[in-house]
Amino acid sequence: RLLGRPAYHVPTPAECGGIPDPYALLETVRRVRAEGGRPKLLLLSVVDDPTATVAPPELVREACEAAVDEGLHIISDETWRDTVHRPRDTVLLSPAEMCPDDVTVVADLSGALVPAAWPVAVARFPDTPRAAVRHARTLDILTALGALVAGPVAHAAAHALGEPDSVRDRIRRAAALQTEVAAAAHRAVLGSGVLARPPQAGRHLYADLGPLRSRLADLGVTDSMELEEYLTDRLGAPAPGGHRFGDELGALRVRLGTGPLLGATPQQQTESLAAAKPLELPHVARALDGFAAVFAELR
Length: 299
Description:
It contains ten helices and seven strands. It is of the alpha/beta class. Strand 2 (73-77), helix 3 and strand 3 form a beta-alpha-beta unit.
C-alpha cells in the first residue's frame, strides 16, 4: 500500500502467524491472477510479530515451495529471529536456507542487536544476476530518499552484526529474560479468561479478549481501536490493537509488550538482565502484579 500497489492478505494456520497456509496461498494467487492482478512477492516472517510464534519448519517448506512454484519472490522478515526464547528446543528454518536464489532477507536490527530508537536495518539479497539488479535499484531508491544511517550508528551496527562474544552473550541473556517474563504475562492473561498463544520469541504476546466481550462492552469497548485506547491507558504502555496488524476491527485482539515489565529506568532494566531470578526483583514483581490486576478486573 505504501508503494501504491495492491496487497493481498492470505490466512495463516492456527498454530502460528507470519506464514501463509500453503493451500490458501495457492488459492489466493490463482484467484488474483484470474481477476487480472499480478502478485510478484510473498512477505512472510518465520518468527512473527505480533503473534510471537515460530513457524514449524514443515510449514515454512510447504509455503516456500508453493510460492516459488507460482513464480513469487519471497521477502523474509527476520527481525526477531535472534529473540527465540528457547533456541535449544525450537527449530528455526529460514526460507533463505531452503530457496537461496528466491529469497531476500530483511531485518530491523532493533529486534535484537541495537536499541529500539536506532533507525537501522539490513537486507541480504540472493547471489544471482536478477537479485543484483534489485540490489542496485534498492540502493538508488534509498540514496534518492536520503535514507542514510548516521556514522556512529552505522559503526555500532557493524560491530553488532559481527556478533562478538559480548553481543552474543547479551542476546542470549535477553532472550532468557524474555522467556521468563513473557511466560508470566501469558499466565496472567490466561487466568483472566483471555486467549493467547504461548509466546515463543520477541518482547510481546498477542491476546484475544473475545471471551471478555460482554464485560468490555459494559466499559464502552467494542472493537480493537477502543481496546487499544483502554489498555494503553490502564497499562500505562502502548497496547496496539489487532486492526494495526491486519485483523478485523471488530476482533478484540491486542499486542501486549513485555519490555515495560522489566523496569522503568535503564538501571532497573540492566538489573533485570543481570538477575538470576528476575521475577523476584521488586520492580518486576510490582509490574507483573499491576499487569495481572488490569486483566483480573475484566473477569
